[in-house]
Amino acid sequence: MVKALLSFEGTDISTNSDFGNKHSPPRPAVTLYPGERALMIAVLEDAIRCYLGLVHYDRTNPEILARQAEYWMRLEDWESPFSFNNICESLGLQHGDTRATILAWRDVDPEQLEARIRSLHTEASANGKAA
């Protein structure tokens, strides 16, 4: 049953031992389509902008968005396909290093933040082209 769920076109269900680390179980190697990759990058970028207070939506308190984004980034979730850990791993980013880097950005000059977010976007996009 699990094999059937994971055997859609573009997916390799073989375990990739390099995919996880000592804190995470081996994960199936998954080939992302361009739309899936773009969605994951957009989710990550939105969370970063919410965490840093760079996003202001009508009817939403930016402080609440920042707390929710921080909670999402700190959560060690391997079950949800759109958890921080799974998005980072799918984009070829080390979740622990990426988390620490983003959480440290709160003290960065706001003018430098967009450049840092773009560099993370570029790294995630480049990792997809290499795969």
Protein described:
This protein is mainly alpha-helical and about 130 residues long. It has one domain. The protein is about 55% helix and about 10% strand. The chain has a two-stranded antiparallel ribbon. The longest helix is centred in the last third of the chain and has 21 residues. The chain is globular and about 35 Å long. The protein starts with a helix and ends with a helix. The N terminus is likely disordered.
Rg estimate, integer Å = 16 Å
Task: Identify the strand order in the major beta sheet.
Answer: 1-2
Residues in helices, as a percent range: 55-70%
Mean pLDDT: 76
Which term fits the overall shape?
globular
User: How widely separated are the two ends?
Assistant: 27 Å
| Main sheet characteristics | 2 strands, antiparallel
Classify the secondary structure makeup into a structural class.
mainly alpha
| Total number of beta strands | 2
**Low-pLDDT sequence parts:** 1-22
H/E topology pattern:
HEEHHHHH
How many structural domains? 1
Number of helices: 6
> How much of the polypeptide forms β-strand, as a percent range?
5-15%
